[in-house]
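Instructor's aside before we start: the two examples that follow are unrelated to each other. I chose them only because their records fit on one page, so don't look for a connection. First example below.
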Amino acid sequence: MSVKPLEDRVLIRPIEAESRTESGIYLPESAKEKPMQGKVVALGPGKLLDNGERIKLAVKKGDTVVYSKYAGTEVEIKNQTHLIVRESELLGVVE
C-alpha cells in the first residue's frame, strides 16, 4: 500500500525518541515523549490557488522536519506509524 498526499499535505515517518538517556538510564514507554521530528516520505502537489496555479512546497522528500507535538493525523502504512500534516503545520527543516 502506498499513500500519496493531496494538496499541501506531507507524509512523514516520525523519528522515534531515544529509549536511553545520555547517562545510560533506560526509559520506560510511559516516560517517552511523542516524537516531534520525522523524515518526509511523500509530498502532495502543492496548494491550489484561486487562479489555478499551484504553490510549490518548501520541503522535499528526504528532509528531516520538526512539527508540533499534536500536529497532523496518524496513519499506519505497512505496520509503521506515519503522520499526514499540512505544510503550514511544519515548524522547520533540520539541516
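Example two begins here.
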Amino acid sequence: MAKSEWSFKSAVELSAALTTKKVSAVELTRDAIDRIERHDGKINAVCVRDFDRALVAAREADAGLARGERKPLLGLPLTIKESFNIAGLPTTWGFVPQKDFKPVEDALAVLRIKQAGGVILGKTNVPIGLGDWQSYNDIYGTTNNPYDLGRTPGGSSGGSSAALAAGYCALATGSDIGGSLRVPAFHCGIFAHKPTINLCAARGETPPPFPAIPREGDLAVIGPMARTAADLSLLLDVMAGPDPLDAGLAYKLDLPAARHQSLRDFRVLVIESHPLLPTDRDVRGAIDKLATDLTKAGVTVARESTLLPDFAETSRLYMRMLLSFLGAFFPPDELADAQAGASQLSPEDRSLGAERLRGITASHRAWVFDAGARAVLRAQWRALFKTFDAVICPIMPTPAFPHDHSPEQRLRRIDIDGTDYPYSDQLAWPGIATLPGLPATAVPLGLSKDGLPVGVQIVGPFLEDRTPLKLAELIEREFGGFTPPPLFDD
C-alpha cells in the first residue's frame, strides 16, 4: 500500500482536514494502523498496540465532528509513552517483573488527551526504568532509529520519537529528567518541548507497581513531542495544568504570551561549547549555520555573555542532584558499590563521574545546600533573561550513536570527533535547562553529512514556555524543520 497523503501532515493540518470533512478520523486511524503494521517490524517503536479501542474512539470522534463538536485533539491519532498509565494496558517501564502490571486508571495527561478527543493508537517503547538514551528492554526489545536502524532513536522517549519520525502519528507524549524528551527529538529530527517544572501535572506517569498519586517534580517533567513546533503548543495546552487532587503541585495554564511574534525582535544568546563536554563538528556546524542565518534574518545574536551561568558548576550540581534522586531507587548491591567508590574519591576530583557518586551517597544536609545553590542559579538565569529572550545550545554532543547495550553504563564511552568521553557525561547538555526547571524546546536543523538528524534546544525563561515555542515556530518557518527519513518516506 502506498504512503497515505496524511502520513506526514501536522496535527494542525489534520485537524483542519477533519473539520472540513476532507478526511475522517477512522480513515486517519486506519492509515496509521496500516503504516505501523507495514513498518514497525523494522523500527519497533509501538510496543503495545491498542488498535481496536483506537478505532472505537475514532468512530466516536467522527460522530462528534458530525454533530459540530470542536475539541483540540478531536479525531487525531497519537501515541503515548509506555511509562504513562493507560487503563487496561501494561505499564512496565521495561521491568520484567512488572510485565503483567495493568493500571485501572489513566494517567492524568492521558485522561486529558482522551477528553480532548485524541485517538490513542498504543504505547511506545522505553529503556529499563527510563534510564538511558537508548530504548530497549527485555520485554519489548530494541527500538531503532528510522534514519539508521543500527543507531539509537534516543531515550527514554525513543519509541515516541521514532513513531513520529516514521509517520505513524502527528503527536506523542514523553517525559524528561535527563533529556528524555529533547534527546530522542534531536536523534530523530523532530520537535519536543520540556515544559517549565511542574507545569504539567504528572500523576500516573509512575513506575509500577507504585500508586498513581500526585507528585511534585524536582527535576522530572512530562511534555509533548511532534513533527512541527505549532503542534507542540497544541498538545501542551491539553497536557498542562494543575492536578485537581492537589492544585498546589502544578501551575495554572495562564502562561504569558511569547515575548515577540517577529523573528527579528528576538534577542538570542547562542552557545556551542561546554567546558567539560565538547560537541562534534556536525553539531557545531549546525549551530554556527543557525547563528549566521538568524543574524541575516535580523535577530540580535550574541555568542557569549558574562551573564551566562557557569556551565561547569551547573553540570556538577546537576549530576549530584539528579543522582541523589535516582540513587534512592538503586538496589542494595549498586548502592554499596557507589558508596565504596565515593569513599575513595579525592576532594580535588571534580569530574562529572565523581559528582555522580557524591550525589548517590549524599546526605539530606548536602542536598539542602545543593538546593540552595540551585536557587542562586535560578536567580542568575532570571537576570540573563532580562537581556536575552532565549539561549540556543546543543542537546547532545553528537548525532545518534550506534546501539551499545553493554550492561554497565558507567563503562560505556561516547566518541566525540575521535576522542572518547564517559557515556553518562552527556547529561551535561540536557541538564543546562533541567536543573533550573526552565522550559526548553528541541528544534531539528536538518541532516548531517551522514544523513543523521541534528538540532538544538531553545531554553526560555521560567514559566514563559510560549517564548521558546514561538521562536521554534519562526525558525522552522524560515529555515526548514522535519525531514522525513528516506528509509520510511513511503
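The longest helix spans residues 364-384.
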